[in-house]
């Protein structure tokens, strides 16, 4: 009864917000004749969103600007309810990305893969590291929900995030932005298109943004917590020697420096032993950590080359080639625990500092052949992917208790008195993947051409190997080598009930590749996990294109799930050990997704998105608990989540007043696979107010804008755990406080 009342209160609260803060993550412009049409590339070709039989959310460039999204990390506020993004534990150096409850907890190792494929301009990004880099000039972000095993392949069990950059236009254009923000922050952007010359068009994009930390670290000379500094540069050249051929080369490079979020002791456990007077509970977001600790930036450096070729061989026949090489170099320095979980022992070393690094490089090649005719549209392709990487880690103590526990003394160096030498663990890993795929949509000559049948499949051969050559500081030579073959089919039936109402039913599968866990002491290997999903939905437009309603319902069977089990500390080391096992039996995830967009009057757009996700995982054997079966949990997935937004534009004569506000609501969720405790319910509001389109002459316009994220400065725990309760008490990590700033933007 209490659960039902809780759901009723949640829905009532969302309903109360509707008149005040209408709308969503899939923002669309309010054109004079209604809602603007959205084009996506979910089927490897351009199709209209409303006629593409899959659940998709799209964030346009205007959406990203209105919500002040400068990195994928900024979408952690729940702007797209089915998409869940979070730092890995307290670290922004790697991002956890999940869709529809398929969320990996610890995918930031060279021998493990993610469960959601993140693509930039058709190129798969193989590591969780580097995903927090600054976004450059983005045309749109497509979130494809549900398994994408046929067209996007391995590691798209939850879905895919398809990021599309703006290409050179061949016409001169300039957009420059300068902004300031609280916590000592600033932003600068430059986007320049050069005029076409001899069939060549060029474009340059650059961005720099930074902010100081929001939780003070009182140790002199050390970085605060929650700071970031991001820089990025992209240069692209488009060659069009004729109407039938185009070739694009692009190079990008980025720098992403972050410090972790601080962990806070929320309360003392009744069984906690007597502790230092320095250790005290902080049940609300702190302004300063309990004690100063050594802390430096975690630095991620990425770069990549992209070459795409498009050739229209004949009417209705097109060839595409996507070649890419990318590198990631990421360091991780995390002293966010501080003395939260520390137990006082006179003159003992304390304050565990997690140091790690990862280097990876990858090459991918994809060929596509696309055909279009009156009744048959099809795509077939070949794919090759190769990556090599390595990681290492160490967890030295950095401080020492005084004899009475009233102070901490910094150790003179990290090598003094440590349990194990650097590195504590280290590994290398390789992966090679080959695939062939095809998908076709046929419209039979019946029912007035309203029925569409789509079928496809993808065959993949994966090979992964690695060596764990350091364990607890000692040399080892533990290797693994596995290979797998997989076929993923899909079939869709779509029916155009009217010109504005489209129904569909879809069945599809996908898998996440197997591997080994470099945090393990024996490099334990595990097999792939897989999903198969049934989805039904409809997409509709009505009121003369003034309203758009899309609904999808799905059920997913989750098999051979890769479950992480953690042992906090292994004897003789300060490392955390994680073993990954495949759970026997099947999990089940069910859900409903709703997207509503309205353009009731000229200049006003209202939107709303809602996602209900409910899932259970099978019992799995915990290798740290005599292989007793344990109930794992789906992580970072609220049962109910919604996003509302309103956008309004008013012509002032010589300028345009633009206003945006959005609210993002979600239930609490579990932040660790074995953690029964929920995070806080979240309610985050963002806003932006701009005076735009002020004429500067010579085709130039200027815009002045004020913005804020977490406008009401809501303080909430996004990850809570009782794992340390035996020592001190439950701990938590709080969300970012209110941030705000002002921008000046010039366009020519």
Describe this structure in a few short sentences:
This protein has two helices and 45 strands. It is mostly beta strands and 748 residues long.
Named CATH architecture: Beta Barrel
Roughly how many Å is the radius of gyration? 26 Å
**Mean of the pLDDT scores?**
91
CATH superfamily: TonB-dependent receptor, beta-barrel domain
Structural class: mainly beta
* Contiguous uncertain segments of 5+ residues: 1-31
Distance between the termini: 60 Å
The main pleated sheet reads as: 22 strands, antiparallel, barrel
> What is the number of helices?
2
CATH class value: Mainly Beta
Helical content (DSSP H or I, runs of 4+): under 10%
Seen as an oligomer or otherwise, the chain set is single chain
Number of strands: 45
Q: Can you tell me the CATH topology?
A: Maltoporin, Chain A
Estimated share of beta-strand residues: over 45%
Overall geometric form:
globular
Give the domain tally.
1
Structure explained in plain terms:
This protein has 748 residues and is mainly beta. The protein has one domain: Maltoporin, Chain A (Beta Barrel), CATH 2.40.170. It contains 2 helices and 45 strands. The strands form 10 sheets. It has a 22-stranded antiparallel beta barrel. A 5-stranded mixed β-sheet has the order 5-10-11-8-9. Strand 3 and strand 4 form a beta hairpin. The longest helix has 16 residues. The relative contact order is 0.15.
């Amino acid at each position: 009864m209490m659960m039902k009342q809780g759901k009723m209160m949640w829905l009532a609260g969302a309903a109360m917000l509707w008149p005040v803060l209408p709308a969503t993550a899939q923002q669309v412009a309010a054109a004079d004749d209604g809602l603007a049409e959205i084009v996506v590339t979910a089927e490897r070709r351009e199709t209209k969103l409303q006629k593409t039989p899959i659940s998709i959310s799209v964030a346009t460039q205007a959406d990203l600007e209105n919500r002040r999204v400068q990195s994928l990390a900024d979408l952690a506020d729940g702007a797209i309810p089915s998409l869940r993004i979070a730092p890995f534990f307290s670290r922004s150096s790697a991002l956890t990305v999940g869709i529809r409850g398929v969320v990996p907890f610890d995918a930031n190792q060279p021998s493990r893969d993610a469960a959601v494929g993140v693509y930039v301009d058709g190129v798969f990004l193989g590591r969780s590291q580097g995903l927090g880099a600054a976004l450059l000039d983005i045309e749109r972000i497509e979130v494809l929900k549900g398994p994408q095993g046929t067209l996007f392949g391995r590691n798209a069990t939850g879905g895919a995030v398809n990021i599309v950059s703006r290409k050179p236009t061949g016409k001169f254009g300039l957009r420059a932005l300068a902004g300031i923000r609280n916590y000592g922050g600033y932003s600068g952007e430059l986007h320049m298109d050069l005029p076409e010359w001899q069939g060549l068009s060029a474009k340059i994009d650059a961005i720099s943004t930074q902010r100081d930390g929001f939780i003070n670290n009182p140790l002199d000379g050390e970085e605060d917590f929650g700071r970031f500094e991001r820089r990025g540069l992209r240069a692209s050249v488009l060659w069009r020697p004729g109407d039938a051929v185009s070739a694009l080369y692009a190079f990008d490079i980025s720098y992403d420096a972050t410090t972790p979020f601080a962990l806070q002791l929320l309360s003392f456990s009744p069984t906690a032993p007597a502790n230092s007077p320095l250790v005290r509970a902080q049940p609300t977001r702190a302004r300063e950590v309990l004690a100063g600790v050594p802390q430096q930036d975690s630095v991620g450096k990425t770069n990549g080359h992209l070459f795409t070729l498009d050739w229209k061989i004949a009417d209705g026949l097109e060839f595409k080639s996507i070649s890419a090489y990318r590198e990631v170099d990421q360091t991780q320095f995390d002293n966010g625990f501080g003395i939260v979980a520390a137990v006082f022992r006179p003159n003992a070393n304390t304050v565990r500092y997690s140091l790690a690094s990862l280097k990876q490089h990858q090459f991918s090649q994809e060929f596509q052949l696309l055909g279009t005719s009156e009744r048959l549209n099809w795509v077939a392709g070949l794919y090759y992917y190769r990556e090599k990487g390595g990681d290492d880690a160490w967890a030295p103590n950095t401080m020492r208790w005084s004899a009475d526990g009233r102070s901490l003394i910094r150790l003179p160096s990290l090598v003094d008195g440590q349990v194990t030498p650097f590195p504590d663990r280290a590994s290398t890993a390789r992966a090679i993947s080959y695939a062939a795929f095809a998908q076709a949509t046929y419209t039979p000559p019946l029912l007035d051409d309203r029925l569409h049948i789509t079928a496809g499949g993808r065959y993949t051969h994966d090979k992964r190997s690695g060596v764990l050559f350091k364990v607890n500081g000692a040399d080892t030579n533990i290797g693994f080598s596995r290979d797998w073959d997989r076929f993923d089919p899909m079939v869709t039936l779509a029916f155009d009930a009217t010109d504005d109402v489209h129904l569909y039913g879809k069945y599809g599968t996908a898998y996440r590749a197997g591997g080994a866990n470099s945090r393990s002491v024996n490099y334990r290997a595990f097999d792939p996990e897989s999903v198969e999903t049934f989805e039904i939905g409809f997409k509709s437009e009505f009121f003369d294109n003034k309203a758009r309603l899309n609904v999808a319902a799905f059920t997913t069977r989750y098999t051979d799930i890769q479950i992480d089990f953690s042992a906090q500390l292994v004897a003789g080391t300060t490392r955390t050990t994680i073993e990954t096992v495949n759970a026997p039996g099947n999990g089940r995830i069910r859900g409903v997704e709703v997207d509503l967009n309205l353009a009731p009057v000229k200049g006003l757009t209202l939107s709303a998105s809602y996602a209900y996700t409910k899932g259970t995982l099978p019992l799995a054997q915990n290798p740290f608990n005599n292989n007793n079966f344990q109930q794992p949990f789906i992580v970072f997935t609220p049962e109910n989540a919604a996003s509302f937004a309103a956008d309004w534009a008013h012509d002032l004569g010589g300028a345009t007043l633009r206003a945006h506000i959005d609210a993002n609501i979600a239930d609490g969720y579990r932040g660790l696979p074995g953690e029964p405790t929920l995070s806080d319910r979240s309610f985050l509001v963002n806003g932006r107010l701009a005076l735009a389109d002020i004429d500067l002459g010579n085709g130039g316009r200027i815009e002045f804008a004020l913005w804020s994220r977490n406008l009401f400065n809501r303080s909430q725990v996004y990850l809570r755990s009782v794992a340390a309760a035996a020592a001190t008490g439950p701990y938590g990590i709080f969300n970012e406080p209110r941030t705000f700033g002002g921008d000046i933007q010039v366009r020519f």
